[in-house]
Amino acid sequence: MRRNRVAMALAVAFPFSLSAYAQANDAPTKELGVVTITGGQPTSLPTQIPTTMEGVTGEQIEQGINATDSEDALKYFPSLLVRKRYIGDYNHAILSSRASGTGNSARSAVYADGILLSNYLGNGIGGLSFPPRWGLVTPEEIERVDVMYGPFSAAYPGNSVGAVVDYVTRMPTHFEAHAKMGYVSQPFELYGTNTTTRSWQASTSVGNKSGDWAWFLNFSHTDSEGQPLTFATRTLASGTPGTAGTPVTGAVPGLNSANAPWWILGSGTAYTTRQDHFKAKLAWDITPTLRAAYTLGVWQNQSQGRPVSYLRDAAGQPVTSGAINIGGRSYAPLTGSDFALTNESLLHTMHGLSVKSHTQGVFDWEVAASLYDYGKDQKRQNSAANALPGAASGGPGTLADGNGTGWNNLALKGIWRPGGMQGAHIVDFGFQQDSYQLDYLTSAIPGNWLQDGPGARVSEVGGKTRLQSLYAQDAWSFAPRWKTVLGLRGERWSAYDGSTAIPGAAPAIDTRWAERSETHFSPKAALSWQWLPDTVLKASAGRAVRFPTVSELYGATATANAQYINDPNLRPEKSWTTELSAEKDLGSSLLRLTFFTEDTHDALYTQTTLDTVANRNVSRVQNVGRIQTKGLELAWSGSDVLRRGLDLNASVTYADSVIKDNAGFVTVPGDTIGKRQPNVAKWRASALASYRWNERWSTSVGARYSGPQFRTLDNSDVNGFAYMGVSKFFTVDLRARYRIDKHMVASFGIDNANNYQFWNFHPYPQRSYVAELKIDL
After folding, report:
1. How many whole angstroms from its chain centre is CA 350?
2. pLDDT beyond 70 at 456
3. Cis preceding-peptide flag for 50 (omega within 30 of 0)
4. Cα 158 to Cα 149: distance, rounded to the nearest angstrom
5. What does the alpha-carbon distance between residue 663 and residue 123 come to, in Å, rounded to a whole number?
6. Counting C-beta atoms within 10 Å of the first and last residue's C-beta, which end of the chain has fewer, N or C?
């Protein structure tokens, strides 16, 4: 019975980790649905809060998941989805959760060893993109990934309203060295594209612990080819009957996301990406109960986006510019916006420093600071007037430069245990300051967009936000089978030094925005009751205030193929989230049923539409009056289920997320009322089964499903299986792992083995073959 209770203890907070931790000598122990991690690298999550937590170990990732990027570790978590489009996706891989879609990156919090990876300079994608900085963690260095669902800890800002993810990375206890090589091949066929993309990855790591010092170094390189992500189009209705324009063939007929007939003229944004990652970690045990740690992360990215025209003239030559004629109808001339070329060069650096006591006595404390710096962040692109084929060798364009952009975080934390570790109270409290700076200058390049320096200013946006917070929460065991956590977070938010300049706008924009400040308080509460020896009941409630980001306030931009419209007067979004859970130990497995609600006022939303006249995407940020979500989540996980060596976990989520109030509209007043929240499917499900055949062989089968959903606030995009649509999907993933000897392991896998073609504005990857070789010393 003791073994089952220990296993259940871990499963309550970390169901995916059941088998790995249950076999450890220092396995966690459970009390009233609360988990204490006592071995290995500690999580930064507040494990004393009786709310839904999930987790997966690095060993389980390697055994059961084709993980080419760190975000792949989240593939089979209940209710989570990362919008990863290709290996090394650095600008669109946004995390969604139960009641937050893939356009709302600022509604989740991602950390690595407590250092912020989420990019709160903006939200989602628009003029700029703001996914978490996944590239600062590689799959090989992950020891464990922990997830807390909902804004139920006072220790986190309102961005935690969806989920808090913490990557716990390796810190050696003795000398270790590792190397890994990977290869991925994806045959891709869509519209007029028929190609095979390939990706190569290599990484190595080494570390040691000697006396009071421990260190770890990790290097990785990715060379990735991605499938086309965008497409040049013309609606059938925009054509004019006649003979004007060059007669062309090769245009692919189809229906757009609104089910209107259109022509697909060619592909774009097929990235060739080269990335390098370096991580150095140093830890010093100053005393047996006091540790200092420093982390340095460096990530660089060189990428090119290249288009391909499907159109051919009478001589069979590609057509990339000028007016065109398809089937006796003349269409607007092709420009550099239709077939855009991009070159990007990025170099980002992360620093983290902490000093932490761990006496496990009456009082412990921590001081932690981190810095994320855009040392280099440049994007070059040909101008609308500079079309192919000439644009391939030069000509005018633009240069967008984000040098000077970044953020820094400071946290002072304390833990007070009036009665010691076995006392009735554990009180967490602290002060935090989070500062963000956005500085983007877009300049014209009159000569050669490939290499020349900046010319006249096209647009310049910048500004700063600062969030200062005080919090306290008390985990109180007030009765033998009861525990509650009560917390309060007070936040002072400021936005200042904001400016927006677009000289070419009509009329020209050159505005310095007034400083803004607001103060809000967010209460939190959680309660657990050990109803039966094998059943725990838990309830959680919390308020979250998600403040506008710098880009949402000031970041208006205009390029050849995209426009982003900001709003400096945006209101913060305010959410009340509740959760009721029942968790039952079934012996070798754990079953959890969770009812959740979220009621959000002034939801911050960026809506993207296509300007068919200018043929460019237009994104506008706005407040949506009220969005209400209610749902159920059923999760089951087990180790050695049915037979020894078989590990299973599965989940299904139902979410009814509806817009209840909105003064704004898309086409006519009231057209969003009663419509579903974008990018939140009613039904989602995932499952992963892993089987250890013997000491050498293991295999796994994973499956993921998401039901139909919409991308627009008025739900007018009724055809999800089209460019700019959001479709349902069902994919099956396979993986086999073979231990050659005690130092070498080979793996082979297939992602999307059933080759399901699905969309989230851009097309997702089709069937992909993955091969890996890993060496451990």
Report:
1. 18
2. yes
3. no
4. 13
5. 21
6. N
Give the strand pairing for 34-36 and 53-57.
unpaired
Q: Distance between CA atoms of 43 and 334, rounded to whole angstroms?
A: 53
CATH number at residue 549: 2.40.170.20
The average pLDDT across 206-219 equals 96
C-alpha 98/C-alpha 653 separation (Å) is 8
First to last CA, the chain: 38
How many whole angstroms separate alpha carbon 322 and alpha carbon 333?
A: 4
User: How much is the pLDDT for 642?
Assistant: 80
Q: Whole domain around residue 466: which residue ranges? A: 2-776
Helices (H), 159-265: none
Tens digit of each residue's pLDDT (9 = 90 or more) over 585-606: 998 899 999 999 999 999 998 7
Q: Where are the alpha helices (DSSP H) in 545-693?
A: 550-554
Token pair of 596 as six digits: 């959740």
The HSE-up count of residue 288 (CA atoms within 13 Å, CB side) is 2
Query: What average pLDDT does the chain have?
Result: 90
By three-state DSSP, how is residue 106 classified?
helix
pLDDT at 420: 84
In angstroms, rounded to a whole number, what is the distance separating the alpha carbons of residues 684 and 706?
4
Helices (H) and strands (E) in the chain, counts: 4, 43
Rounded distance, CA 487 to CA 325, Å? 66
Percentage helix, strand, coil for the chain under 3-state DSSP, each rounded to 5: 5, 55, 35
What's the structural domain count of the chain? 1
Cβ atoms within 10 A of the Cβ of 25, count?
Answer: 5
All residues at 6 or more sequence positions from 13 whose CB lies less than 8 Å from its CB, including other chains: 28, 34, 35, 47, 53, 54, 55, 146
> What is the tens place of the pLDDT at every residue in 602-621?
999 877 655 555 555 667 78
Residue 389's pLDDT is what?
A: 94
**What does 295-348 look like in DSSP terms, one character per residue?**
EEEEEEEEEEEEEEE--B-TTS-B--SEEEEETTEEEEEE-TTTT--EEEEEEE
DSSP string, 460-473: EEEEEEEEEEEEEE
pLDDT score for 587? 87
Encoded tokens for 74: 């989240």
Dist. CA 399–CA 451, nearest whole Å = 10
Mean pLDDT calculated for residue range 366-375 = 96
Distance CA 90, CA 346 (A): 10
Averaged pLDDT, 568-580:
96
Q: Omega of the bond prior to 418 within 30 degrees of 0, cis?
A: no
Sign of the CA dihedral running 475, 478, 482, 486: negative
